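quick q for whoever's on today - can somebody do inverse folding on this one?? i tried earlier but teh output was garbage lol. tokens:
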């Protein structure tokens, strides 16, 4: 039994600054995106990364079933893209994108991008830990968008 409340735990986790990503995939109904800050590298050989979608999300079934997906590390000027996919994943109106591995939508102006094949999924409580094998990656450049204590942040280059 826990002796702390969920909100206090979430607030404590918010002290760890993360990058902001948008994960995209192609579904039978069209392109789908999700803003995610649970992204990490796993292995160089083979090249593996992970991310963790929430099971309560209405987009969860599509991402759980996706054979391919793309992870976009957003640059510091892409908070609007993060906000667009934080609440709904189907709003691609007015967005230019290419098709990558498995037809996953690819945004061009991000800090880094990883095209992945679903390699494994593991139970992570109220999330699924998705491991992706990186098939291709690109580093268009720029400074990353950060998230800290419930707000977007930028790197300071002093």
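ok took a stab at it. sequence:
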């Amino acid at each position: 039994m826990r002796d702390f409340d969920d909100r206090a735990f979430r607030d404590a986790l918010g002290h760890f600054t993360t990058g902001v990503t948008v994960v995209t995939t192609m579904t039978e109904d069209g392109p789908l995106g999700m803003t995610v800050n649970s992204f990490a590298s796993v292995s160089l050989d083979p090249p593996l990364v992970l991310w963790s979608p929430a099971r309560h999300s209405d987009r969860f079934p599509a991402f759980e079933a996706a054979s391919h997906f793309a992870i976009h590390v957003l640059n510091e000027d892409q908070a609007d893209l993060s906000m667009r996919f934080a609440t709904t994943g189907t709003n691609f109106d007015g967005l230019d994108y290419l098709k990558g591995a498995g037809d996953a939508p690819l945004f061009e102006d991000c800090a880094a991008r990883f095209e992945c094949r679903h390699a494994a999924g593991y139970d992570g409580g109220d999330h699924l830990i998705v491991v992706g094998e990186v098939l291709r990656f690109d580093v268009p450049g720029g400074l990353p968008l950060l998230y800290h204590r419930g707000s977007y942040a930028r790197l300071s280059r002093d």
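fwiw The mean pLDDT is 92. also The two ends are 45 Å apart (CA to CA). so keep that in mind when u check it
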